[in-house]
Amino acid sequence: MVLSDNDIAKFQELYEKYLGKKIGKQEAYEKGIKLVNLMSLIYKPITQEELDRVEARRKATKK
């Protein structure tokens, strides 16, 4: 995965806004890649079958 210069600049902006620390382009790139990799490991879209099971379980526990 490659982050564009625009992605890196936006990451730097958000990092400073929320963490109060300025970081350089290289550090922003490294942290941005780590974040993208983490999100790709964690986030998995739910299938319709999984959604149906969750909704059925919710209905069963609301009674």
Q: How would you describe the overall organization of this protein?
A:
The longest helix is centred in the middle third of the chain and has 18 residues, at 25-42. Helices cover 76% and strands 0% of the residues. The radius of gyration is 19 Å and the shape is elongated. It contains 3 helices and no strands. The chain has one domain (5-62). Helix 1 (5-19) crosses helix 2 (25-42). The model has no long low-confidence stretch (mean pLDDT 95). The protein is mainly alpha-helical and 63 residues long.
Unreliable residue stretches: none
Query: What fraction of residues sit in β-strands?
Result: under 5%
What's the alpha carbon Rg, rounded to whole Å?
19 Å
Give the mean pLDDT: 95
By secondary-structure content and strand pairing, the structural class works out as mainly alpha
The succession of helices and strands, N to C, reads HHH
Number of strands: 0
Overall spatial form:
elongated
Q: Termini, distance in Å?
A: 47 Å
Number of self-contained structural domains: 1
Helical content, roughly? over 70%
Number of helices: 3
Largest sheet: none
